[in-house]
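Quiz preparation item.
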């Protein structure tokens, strides 16, 4: 049985190519950039470029591809669990087995405190500005929030993951704008390849600061598009 308790009418948004750019087609007729595109185009790439040079381009690409494969599988296991109420089996693929174990860590450490799930893989948009897809919307320990699943090759430090908080903020603002909510809380549930679980929390008293940082990135993105 699905774990979702529908509360809002979430619309599916299509991705379309407009002048060579992949944009979200919103119900208001506008095509807008994704949250991930805005963040990637305005991110300081200094450390990433240095890392790719240090390990070599071929090895860097191998690491990125493998991480994406495991992350996609982990997300799928968690999504299937939410949609069916049953934990899926991984099969014989070693990446799937790894991703399944990682998903179990998130299920056991994070999902036990998720009281209500309003939607998974929820598409959200802020009219004429941006759109994106968040893993989970619902309540965590009784409070409405945005939630995301992440995989990592190694444990993260909070100062490394500013974009995680900006994603949560962007989705919360979009949800508030379209659905009339007042969400100011978000949580990122992370599992590392060694099965270390981490959680990063965006609390209401921090929301205004992250909101200001998010709009700065949005303005920066559209300035570069002129």
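Solution:
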């Amino acid at each position: 049985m699905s774990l979702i308790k529908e509360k809002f009418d979430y619309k599916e948004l299509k991705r379309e190519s407009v002048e060579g750019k992949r944009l979200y087609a919103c119900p208001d007729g506008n095509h807008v950039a994704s949250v991930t595109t805005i963040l990637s185009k305005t991110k300081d790439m200094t450390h990433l470029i240095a890392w790719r040079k240090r390990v070599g381009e071929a090895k860097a690409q191998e690491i990125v591809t493998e991480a994406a494969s495991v992350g996609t599988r982990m997300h799928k296991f968690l999504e299937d669990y939410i949609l069916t109420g049953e934990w899926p089996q991984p099969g014989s693929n070693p990446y799937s087995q790894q991703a399944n174990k990682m998903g179990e860590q998130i299920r056991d450490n994070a999902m036990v405190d998720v009281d209500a799930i309003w939607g998974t893989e929820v598409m959200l948009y802020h009219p004429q500005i941006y759109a994106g897809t968040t893993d989970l919307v619902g309540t965590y320990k009784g409070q409405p929030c945005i939630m995301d699943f992440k995989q990592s090759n190694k444990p993260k430090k909070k100062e490394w993951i500013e974009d995680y908080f900006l994603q949560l903020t962007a989705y919360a603002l979009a949800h508030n704008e379209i659905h009339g909510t007042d969400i100011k809380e978000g949580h990122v549930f992370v599992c590392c390849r060694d099965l270390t679980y981490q959680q990063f929390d965006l609390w209401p008293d921090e929301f205004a600061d992250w909101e200001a940082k998010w709009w700065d990135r949005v303005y920066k993105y559209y300035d570069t598009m002129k």
